[in-house]
Amino acid sequence: MPKTAVGLIAATLVAAVLGVAGVSTAVAQTNNPTQSNSTLAQQVQQGRDRLAAAWQAQDVTALRTAVSELNPVLAAAHGDRNALSPAAAMYLGRAEQQRDQLATALYAPQPRSGILDSVTGLVSGLLDSLSNLLSNLLGGGGGDSSTKPTSPTSPTPAPAPMPATA
Question: Which of 30, 52, 53, 136 has its CA 20 to 30 A from that of 106?
Answer without folding.
Answer: 136
